[in-house]
Amino acid sequence: MTQEADIATELLPILKSVSDPEIPVLSIVDLGVVRSAYLLENNKVKVEITPTYSGCPAMDVIGDDIKTALKEHGYEPEVKLILSEAWTTDWMTEEGKKALKDYGIAPPVDPTSDKDALLGNKKIIECPQCGSKNTQLVSQFGSTACKAMFKCEDCEETFDYFKCLI
Amino acid sequence: MTNENLIHYIHSIADNSLILGQRLSELCGHGPTLETDIAMTNIALDLFGQTRSYFQYAAELSNEDLTEDDIAFLRKERDYKNVLLVEQPNTDFAYIIVRQYFFDVYHYLLLKQLENSKNVNLQNIAKKSLKEVAYHRRFSGDWLKRLGDGTEESHERVQKAINDLWVYTDELFHMNEDDKIVANAGFGVDNSSLKDEYYQIISDLIKQATLEVPEIQYFQKGGKKGIHTEHMGYILSEMQYMQLAYPNMKW
Lengths: 166, 251
Ligand SMILES: [Zn+2]
Known about the structure:
The complex is a heterodimer.
Chain A: E1 6-7, H1 12-16, E2 19-20, E3 23-27, H2 28-31, E4 34-39, E5 44-49, H3 58-72, E6 76-81, H4 94-103, E7 105-106, H5 111-118, E8 135-139, E9 147-152, E10 158-162
Parallel strand pairs in A: 1-4, 5-6, 7-10
Antiparallel strand pairs in A: 2-3, 4-5, 8-9, 9-10
Chain B: H1 3-25, H2 34-61, H3 68-73, H4 84-87, H5 93-114, H6 120-148, H7 152-165, H8 177-184, H9 195-208, H10 231-239, H11 241-245
Helix pairs in contact in B: 1-2, 1-8, 2-6, 5-6, 5-7, 5-9
């Protein structure tokens, strides 16, 4: 049901170089917040981004970073924040999920498993440090709006889980 | 329906989120545990984000040269149309949770209807917010059950919070003139249509939490007309301080 992002090929590498300020290993394209990027006449570029969560304080920074990156390549960017369609974790790419895991954040699982995990019903979320599934929910809310907090019973480390949002 | 009607309607929805967000953000660094502290400030952040979307749209609709910040910070007490429930103080954790749950269930039902608004901007904000509010409701509902079914003391305190805050629930379903006009135009929600389902849901959860549903039939009202409790002045003086002391300041 959800639309694919529509990004002009020439702009893709530039946008991929911009990362989420709170998760520096994750490109905003892999996060799925860039919904479209068009080349217009006279080097003008129009980019549409959508927030992960309404109050995400990173959105202003992401908007500025996109402008800076595009200007460096000689473009004249305009960045628009759109709300429709609402962001979903389905838009996060496989590459993005891998980057999260390598960084120590457990990537979102499918919606049903996510619900089980966040209600503390099932041990499903894999510890990004040691790979154990012997993990436990500590808090439904984490260090940012998009994350929940878990702990691993095996390596005894806490870790963030990127919540599923559909 | 005039633009003015619509602007007032947007203010009244957004003011609930703004004032509750402000109340919750008072807890930043003061939550009973780190996890609840983070949870409540996360909820505050979602509510502020939603408020921004509404106020940005209201500013666009306005003929005056306004920004979202002007609407949030530079109105007078009588111009805020939030319900009395959301301005009630953070008396203790039980009050915070009950206030949150009473609001979250209403908020959820409201947004579910607002998703069908004939106005595409309101539709989009509602769709986005609904995902977040579903999560808030889960948090506050879980805690309400935990407190009710917890220790003798938590049970007693959460029952007191329910009894004290119950009188503010009816106002959630009141409609002022702007609300009625905007609802009739298909842009807004007829709040009174949410009432039965609301009381069904919260009564069920209260019973599940081994608590008692109050039989109080006397309700407080006024916020939707701009007549607030004594707490509102304190909230605004803190919230508006920076903009009044340093006009037009920006982060
Ligand atoms: Zn581990």
